[in-house]
Amino acid sequence: MSEICYRNEFKHEISQKNKVILTSRLRKVLKHDENSVGNSYSIRSLYFDTIYDDAYWEKEDGRSYREKFRIRYYNNDASFIRLEKKVKDGAVGYKQSACITKDMADQLIQKKYDCLADASHPLLQEFYAKSKSQCMEPKVIITYEREAFAYGPGNTRITLDFDMHASTQVSSFFHDGRIGIREPGIDCVLEVKFDNYLPGWIQSLVQTEETNSTSHSKYVIGRHLNQI
Question: In this protein, which residues make up the domain named VTC (predicted)?
Answer without folding.
Answer: 7-223
